[in-house]
Design a protein that fits this description.
GO molecular function: GTP binding
GO cellular component, one term: cytosol
Low-confidence stretches: 1-8, 172-186, 188-210, 260-264, 276-281, 492-522
Bound molecules: guanosine-5'-diphosphate, magnesium ion
Strand content: 5-15%
Number of helices: 17
Pfam families: MMR_HSR1 (PF01926)
Order of helices and strands: HHHHHHHHHHEHEEEHEHEHEHHH
Transmembrane segments: 21-42, 48-68
Number of strands: 7
Radius of gyration: 34 Å
Largest sheet: 7 strands, mixed
Strand order of the largest sheet: 2-3-4-1-5-6-7
Number of domains: 3
Mean pLDDT: 73
Helix content: 55-70%
Protein name: G domain-containing protein
Length: 522
């Protein structure tokens, strides 16, 4: 990247040095021709006609330009700049990504407050990239270069694409301007050097031709569009460009550019599930975690019992049983994964952690009338430690939903007259349920906690609430799945892709050798 920058700036320097000579080279012959032309026009007596013609053409050319300018100004004035930011946080970012986004935005504000010159933006972008790199790769040296060349190319492409889209959306007539024009306007705005003087001579000269006049007028218009822009518009454009850079470097350093969307392969977990059931679906994967006898299998049975259609048990492995079912006929299918209970044994816990990582939603089942929670808190701490590892920063964690099961067994055991008003508990039972919910929620910090009873001899309690919750989680769960698939795809080396590249290379070599052969036959 640096190399490109230095070669670009040396190119610009070179062209600045050469420009006056080129202008003179073109200017002198034109001056000579113009001189001769004026003399002969004077001799032939056409001078008045010429002046009239130039004036007429000037007016004709000015009309559309004036109209255009008014249009630009009107649209610029109606731009609502106080409305929300043009660049917003991406939907599939993790909380860590969002934290970096806030940090980068603060930096952008500081940068623009310090010096908001257009020329500073390139340095600012580099600074933002370095800051993001420090967040994602705190230990790596030369961390701002912690990406591959294809990733860098995709990033460049992405910034330009997004910035262009935003400009087209928000800046009127921007599609008519190209970057060299904008640069030119800024380059020559208030420079009092040789180049400027030569430039002015050239401008005066070209005014003698209608095409030149038009070019001049366009230059003037550009000057007006950009130097006349309201300060807020300019500030907004600069901020937007930097925010675009920030948003893209987050994607870059969190590893999201490793794979393009098309390269997203199907999830390894899904493939394993599908081998057992040949249906091309990508269902929400819900796993149930909890101690032995918390009621995981009973909850799955109850959910399956009330699920209306297509209940399939996929052949179970020794440790996990996967059921496929739908909450409603027209809803997407989901996979319910029944797992062995928490036992506090490292290898079994590792297996359960792995299963949690491969899920979109985790239902953490707790037995209400059995208060020993050390297995749960210990396992939760391991899960958290695993997530806090810097290597997992690009990961979006599954939704963690607490379920307090077997509340019918809370004291007083004999009393079971649902429903209970848990917001304003009046009976002893309701108060106990409420306390147990608060206690477990404080201890384990779930996203939510749902009281439940799925006893064999009583009708289920609050099962619909759990179903509704799962339904509401669908979209967020899918984001988790997408994130997981990206990470999986970028981890696995794509043999197919490498083969395709080799094939293309082979083909081009082959075709060039064939052309050589025909050449020799001739
Ligand atoms: N009273 C009552 N018993 C339950 C409830 N849920 C499960 N059980 C019983 O608890 C025992 C263990 O349940 P199970 O689903 O096998 O637990 P797992 O080990 O977590 O899969 C079984 O005898 C179930 O009938 C409940 O909500 N109320
Ligand atoms: Mg079980």
């Amino acid at each position: 990247m640096r190399q490109t920058q230095t070669s670009l700036s040396s190119f610009l320097r070179l062209s600045e040095q050469i420009a006056p000579f080129i202008a003179l080279l073109i200017g002198i012959p034109i001056l000579v021709v113009v001189g001769f032309g004026i003399v002969s026009i004077y001799r032939e007596g056409y001078l008045l006609a010429l002046v009239l013609l130039i004036t007429l053409l000037t007016f004709l050319a000015a009309i559309p330009l004036l109209f255009l300018r008014r249009q630009v100004k009107k649209r610029m004035d109606t731009q609502d700049l106080t409305s929300e930011a043009w660049v917003t946080a991406s939907k599939n970012w993790t909380p860590f990504d969002l934290q970096v986004w806030l940090l980068l935005n603060t930096r952008i504000e500081e940068q623009l407050a310090a010096n908001a010159d257009w020329y500073m933006l390139r340095n600012y972008s580099l600074d933002l990239a370095t800051l993001a790199a420090t967040q994602y790769h705190p230990t790596r040296s030369r961390r701002e270069l912690a990406f591959t060349i294809p990733e860098a190319l995709r990033m460049t492409e992405e910034v330009s694409r997004r910035y262009r889209l935003l400009l087209m959306q928000h800046v009127p007539l921007v599609e008519k301007l190209n970057l060299s024009m904008v640069r030119m306007v800024y380059d020559h705005r208030d420079k009092q050097e040789t180049l400027q003087r030569v430039w002015n001579i050239y401008r005066i000269l070209r005014i003698f031709t209608p095409a030149g006049w038009l070019a001049e007028a366009r230059g003037q218009l550009l000057d007006h569009v950009f130097t006349g822009l309201k300060d807020e518009v300019q500030a907004k454009l600069k901020q937007t460009l930097l925010q675009e850079v920030a948003s893209v470097v987050i994607d870059l350093y969190s590893g999201r550019f490793k794979v393009s969307d098309e390269e997203l392969s199907a999830s390894e977990t899904l493939k394993a599930d599908q081998q057992r059931l040949a249906v091309p679906l990508e269902p929400l994967r819900v796993c149930l975690i909890g101690q032995v006898s918390a009621g995981k299998s009973s909850i799955i049975n109850a959910l399956l019992g009330s699920m209306v259609a297509e209940v399939n048990q996929l052949p179970s492995t020794q440790t996990a049983t996967v059921y496929q079912a739908k909450l409603e006929p027209d809803l997407e299918a989901m996979h319910l994964v029944d797992l062995p209970g928490l036992e506090g044994k490292p290898d079994k816990d590792n297996y359960l952690l792995e299963q949690m990582l491969q899920s979109d939603v985790v239902l953490w089942v707790l037995k209400a009338n059995q208060p020993a929670r050390s297995l749960d808190t210990h396992f939760k701490a391991r899960w958290q430690a695993w997530l806090d590892d810097p290597k997992q920063r690009a990961r979006r964690q599954p939704l963690l939903l607490g379920v307090l099961n077997q509340i019918d067994r809370l004291a007083p055991q004999q009393e079971w007259q649902p429903p209970y008003d848990l917001q304003n508990p009046t009976t002893q039972k309701a108060r106990n349920i409420r306390d147990a919910l608060d206690y477990n929620q404080n201890l384990l910090g779930f996203q939510s906690i749902t009281p439940l009873s799925v006893s064999e001899d009583k009708p289920p309690y609050n099962l619909e609430a759990l179903e509704k919750l799962l339904d509401q989680c669908y979209e967020q769960g899918m984001q988790v799945q997408l994130n997981r698939r990206r990470l999986e795809a970028s981890d696995s080396f794509s043999v197919q892709e490498q083969f395709k590249r080799a094939y293309r290379l082979g083909k081009s070599l082959f075709s060039s050798s064939r052309t050589n052969k025909t050449d020799t036959i001739k």
